[in-house]
């Protein structure tokens, strides 16, 4: 591929019109490129769109994981785009999913993105040609499939669609109902029932707090080294990992036994890119998408970028930063390293991860404290504007509180004073 110099290429395909896709579309258009975003849903917003729709059969797919009553676990002050923050008129910092969706709509309107977004258009196949990309797009409105050609591909399809279900002995023997958190929608579906929730990450903790208000009793199974605070929940009992299921409950690794009617698996998601052909040059093994340079650029076909793979990060800001980083190369303002240099850089970075204990492939894109070095690296390499220090300070102030201070951390609101400082007030 790429017989034409990269900076002379113009046609951009953005897959998805959620938070990442909107950023890719906006920044590409501002660079004077011919960009279009394909969104298979009926509206923009990606995972922030709430729908009670359930799969029609085992082959059907529900895109959104949004559930009723969700409030953000990060303050809106860190969730805006670098050049388009949330309006200060919203008093609370931890806002509803509907408010996030309205913000994304306003972002699209402010930057006049809607004419460049095709709703109910699903990208079903992307494959490389000698000098561009062949994209098959299914128009759900007219039930037609068209072939379109592009110079650049931004993969922004999110990673909260394909549930990562665990394999636990006896799961098929359990006679109650089992779902993944992807299909959890309302707490009142568990009224006066006993429920087992597996996983105490952000979703597991938040869903536990929702369900316990309706359920008779909730068992929260996890293997966190630090025990989260559930004292305020009352009818929640923490348990270790499940050893095996029985027909009416489970036996846990401490030998205890409990009975319940429902299981909610809050066990995360798999990175999945079903529209990409095998010859795009990327494979996914246990959520390690490889080979990518700087967690976004496809080393084998560099005119394809993946936006939003890193986790334990400042989501909206990192999406925007990755897009601006890649565009520096796509517009010829910086020169990409050779394939050999990019591979060497990837191997060096992964080697450092293994040394720090990130030996699980599922953590290959996990950032945490490493995110701040990552932001600096992208900025220093291409000269793009870095994330403001106040955003980094805010993020550090919020870290892990959605697990360990769930009962109190949303009782505060933040105010950005300037690029360096913020204030924090009780509601």
Automatic annotation (TrEMBL):
Oxidoreductase keyword on record: yes
InterPro entries on file: FAD/NAD-bd_sf, Flavin_mOase, Flavin_mOase-like, FMO-like
Required cofactor(s): FAD
EC number: 1.-.-.-
GO molecular-function term, one example from the UniProt record: NADP binding
Pfam annotation, one family: FMO-like
Keywords: FAD, Flavoprotein, Monooxygenase, NADP, Oxidoreductase
Top-rank EC class of the record's enzyme: oxidoreductase
Protein family per UniProt: Belongs to the FMO family.
PANTHER family per the UniProt record, alphabetical: DIMETHYLANILINE MONOOXYGENASE
Protein name: Flavin-containing monooxygenase
Organism of provenance: Drosophila virilis
């Amino acid at each position: 591929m790429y017989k034409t110099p990269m900076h002379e290429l113009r046609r951009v395909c953005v897959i998805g019109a959620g938070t990442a896709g909107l950023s890719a579309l906006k920044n590409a258009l501002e660079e004077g490129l011919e960009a279009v975003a394909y969104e298979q849903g009926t509206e923009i917003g990606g995972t922030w769109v709430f729908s009670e729709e359930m799969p029609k059969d085992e082959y059907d797919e529900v895109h959104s994981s949004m559930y009723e009553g969700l409030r953000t676990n990060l303050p809106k002050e860190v969730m805006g785009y670098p050049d388009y923050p949330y309006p200060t008129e919203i008093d609370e910092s931890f806002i509803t999913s509907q408010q996030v969706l309205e913000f994304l709509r306003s972002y699209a309107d402010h930057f006049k993105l809607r004419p460049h977004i095709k709703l109910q258009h699903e990208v079903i196949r992307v494959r490389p040609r000698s000098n561009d990309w062949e994209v098959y797009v299914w128009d759900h409105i007219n039930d037609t499939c068209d072939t379109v050609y592009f110079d650049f591909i931004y993969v922004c399809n999110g990673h909260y669609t394909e549930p990562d279900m665990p394999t636990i002995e006896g799961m098929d023997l359990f006679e109650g109902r089992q779902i993944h958190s992807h299909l959890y929608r309302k707490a009142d579906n568990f009224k006066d029932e006993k429920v087992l929730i597996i996983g105490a990450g952000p979703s597991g903790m938040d869903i536990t707090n929702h369900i316990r208000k309706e359920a008779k009793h909730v068992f929260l199974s996890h293997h966190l080294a630090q025990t989260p605070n559930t004292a305020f929940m009352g009818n929640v009992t923490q348990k270790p990992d499940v050893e095996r299921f029985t027909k009416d409950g489970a036996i846990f690794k401490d030998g205890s036994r409990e009975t319940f009617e429902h299981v909610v698996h809050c066990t995360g998601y798999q990175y999945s890119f079903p529209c990409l052909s095998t010859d795009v040059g990327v494979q996914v093994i246990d959520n390690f998408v490889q080979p990518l340079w700087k967690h976004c650029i496809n080393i084998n076909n560099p005119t394809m970028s993946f936006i939003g793979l890193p986790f334990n990060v400042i989501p909206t800001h990192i999406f925007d930063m990755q897009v601006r980083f890649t565009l520096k190369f796509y517009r010829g303002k910086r020169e990409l390293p050779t394939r050999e240099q990019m591979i060497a850089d990837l191997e060096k970075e992964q080697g450092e991860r293994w040394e720090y204990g990130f030996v699980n492939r599922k953590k290959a894109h996990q950032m945490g404290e490493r995110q701040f070095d990552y932001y600096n690296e992208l900025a220093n390499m291409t000269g793009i504007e870095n994330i403001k220090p106040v955003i980094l300070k805010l993020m550090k102030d919020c870290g892990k509180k959605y697990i360990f201070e769930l009962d109190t951390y949303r009782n505060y609101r933040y105010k950005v004073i300037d690029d360096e400082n913020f204030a924090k007030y009780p509601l």
